[in-house]
Amino acid sequence: MARVVTVSNLQRCHHGAKAKISSLLDELEEDGEASRYHIYGYFAAFVSSLYGHRPGVITNMLLKEVALAKTEGSPEEGYIINVSEHKTAKVFGAAQLYLQKDEFAWLECWVFMRPKIKPKAHNDLVFFTAGKGPMKNLNGYFQQAWAEMGLPGKPTFTDVKTTVSAHGKNLHSAEERAEMAKYMCHDEATADKFYALSLNAKQSAEMRRRFEATLQSGKDESHEDEGNEGKQARVPQSPKSSLLVRGRGTL
Length: 251
What we know:
Layout: H1 7-31, H2 33-51, H3 56-59, H4 63-72, E1 79-83, H5 89-92, E2 95-99, H6 101-113, H7 138-148, H8 157-168, H9 174-184, H10 201-216, H11 242-245
Helix pairs in contact: 1-2, 1-6, 2-7, 2-8
């Protein structure tokens, strides 16, 4: 049975993760390996709480896909990372992840520091493990970040995906919901395998606004509906990563 995740908690997760990632990148510069999995967990929390993407969109992301997004995107329009390998790729094609300039700068910073942790030779995954293949425990790192932000329960990526999809029904038209489902690479039963939703930067920004509207609806949730789920997340306040300020985090 799926664990119920409220939109208000997804909203706190999203904002809490965004506030934390830059300071984790600074810590990584100091201690290397120790902060790596923290970064994985918080980045997964940020992405999944907004878009409801499956973990494979993160675990299978390649360096060349980030580099291509850098080439084709811009600070003004944002950046689109097309992840070719993920669970439903045969149905939906590449999964798209749209990031704004400050969020894409996290990846630039991470890629810059990545060689310091000495990944295995020929491992081209952005978020690499001690071995050569994709990580298997991203859900655990996500749940750790979730708990550290003071959020209740122990949700999985599937639970988050369910909440993002369900609450979108209250805000968006049937056509918009269908497009959002394709963007999330979810509904295999009704997907047209000959049509992959491939958006440009302007369209991706509009799609993101739809997902943000879903998160924004969390403000209207009654705390009584959350029962005894737990304390609200403390949103950590942190300055921009010093690496980004110094301009070192570039591809």
